[in-house]
Design goal:
Shape: globular
Number of strands: 3
Radius of gyration: 26 Å
CATH architecture of the largest domain: Orthogonal Bundle
Order of helices and strands: HHHHHHHEEEHHHHH
CATH topology of the largest domain: hpI Integrase, Chain A
Strand content: under 5%
């Protein structure tokens, strides 16, 4: 069974161009399942039936895994077994015998415009690091990039004439991301004043965003600087890179953007993935309506407010 896992991982790398994070997850989750089978005394796929799988789900629950984690593990096992069916190792997919736990849908968290403005203003742009960090925040918000896409950018990926970025997204799919004027200006200043200072006495790398040692900035560093500037801006919530992506999409839809356009800008393969932001936009519209429209507010009490039409004087 282990040799099948090794071949599957090779398939994910070579054919699916999966990210290191995805590879690590698949490897860990499937090995966890194999360890469970070993405890059950099962050493081949012939012994894997729906009763074993249900015991595995019950075991995961007993271990304290939440529904979302269990659903992810089931999904990854299903993908693995689908591969084995395709390769002729299995006649049918045993994971089809069980259903994933239902996960309650949660609306994406996002920042309002005032919070975005406070966050963007937080870096000290009199320093090279501050110029870099301001450019990072601007690009996360202006282009809706994933953090993995942001740190993978090279200088050659910028197309200044069209204010575009050539982005390599999930599955190695390339798309164009757009930059507004504020993001362009911030990026230009970082490249003109900030990056050369960070690169002093070091051979210039291809990476757009570099650390103080001249190497490519890491995803972890971006997460840390977002947390730092959210606190500096006085925001009472944890801000993480994907929240900026949620904010990008929500603000576009609030501004009247077409859902298909937002899908393309985000690089979503499926429109249903993008549609979650319409729910956010609708929830926001309801909140604004209840706060702003006179007809949505409770009528004042007292003698001056008739309680029924019959009390109105003719």
């Amino acid at each position: 069974m282990d040799e099948h896992l090794d071949r599957f991982i090779t398939y994910l790398i070579a054919e699916k161009n999966a990210s290191p994070y995805t590879i690590k997850n698949y490897h860990h989750e499937i090995e966890q399942f194999f360890a469970f089978l070993k405890e059950e005394g099962i050493d081949s796929w012939e012994g894997v039936d729906r009763h074993v799988l249900r015991r595995y789900l019950a075991w995961l629950k007993d271990q304290g895994y939440v529904r979302a984690s269990i659903a992810r593990k089931v999904s990854e096992l299903r993908s693995f077994c689908r591969y084995l069916v395709r390769e002729g190792v299995l006649a049918s997919n045993p994971i089809s015998a069980v259903s994933s736990p239902k996960i309650p849908k949660r609306l994406p968290e996002y920042l309002d415009l005032h919070e975005v403005e406070a966050l963007l203003s937080a870096p000290d742009t009199s320093t090279p690091q501050g110029l870099r960090d301001r450019a990072i925040l601007e690009m996360l918000y202006a282009a809706g990039l994933r953090v993995s896409e942001l740190v993978a950018l090279d200088i050659s990926d910028i197309e200044w004439s069209g204010a575009e970025l050539r982005v390599l997204g999930k599955g190695g799919k390339e798309r164009l991301a757009l930059l507004g004027k504020p993001a362009q200006r911030t990026l230009e200043r970082y490249l003109r004043e900030g990056r050369p200072e960070l690169m002093k006495d070091k051979p210039p790398p291809r990476a757009l965003f570099v650390n103080r040692f001249g190497g490519r900035l890491s995803e972890r560093s971006v997460r840390m600087l977002l947390d730092k500037y959210a606190k500096a801006a006085g925001l009472d919530k944890r801000v993480y890179p994907h929240m900026m992506r949620h904010t990008f999409a929500t603000h576009l839809l609030d501004g009247g953007a077409d859902l298909r356009v937002v899908q393309e800008l985000l690089g979503h393969a499926n429109l249903a993935t993008t549609q979650i932001y319409t729910h956010v936009s609708q929830a926001r519209a309801r909140e604004v309506y209840l706060k702003s429209h006179p007809g949505a507010k409770e009528a004042p009490s007292g003698p001056s407010a008739p309680s029924s039409p019959s009390e109105v004087k003719k």
